[in-house]
Design a protein that fits this description.
This protein is of the alpha+beta class. It has one domain (8-91). 19% of the residues lie in helices and 42% in strands. It is built from two helices and six strands. A hairpin with a 5-residue loop joins β2 and β3.
């Protein structure tokens, strides 16, 4: 993981390729959702946060940018994911 700004998570496309193609979206307010990526064939989930956009090098997209969640938002997302998968191992930072 790299963070060029405080409170921002950078998800490089090379790392993103380790997750399922389609993320889970969890509502955290009437207007916001958190993006949750799952490792295929496992119970491991990475909560990226609120989508902010992409990072480009020239015309090539190299990463996606997310805003970190507050502690209250993390709790709400964790509860939702656990309802979907009781065995879920939830991560809020990339390893």
């Amino acid at each position: 993981m790299a963070a060029s700004e405080t409170g921002v998570i950078i998800l490089p496309l090379a790392k993103k390729s380790q997750f399922n193609i389609t993320p889970m979206y969890v509502s955290i307010s009437p207007t916001d959702v958190a993006t949750v990526w799952r490792v295929p064939n496992s119970h491991t989930y990475f909560v990226a946060g609120k989508y902010l956009g992409v990072i480009k090098e020239g015309e090539t997209i190299t990463a996606q940018k997310y805003r970190k969640l507050t502690e209250q938002e993390k709790k709400a997302v964790a509860e939702f994911v656990k309802m979907q998968d009781r065995e879920a191992a939830i991560q809020f930072e990339l390893s």
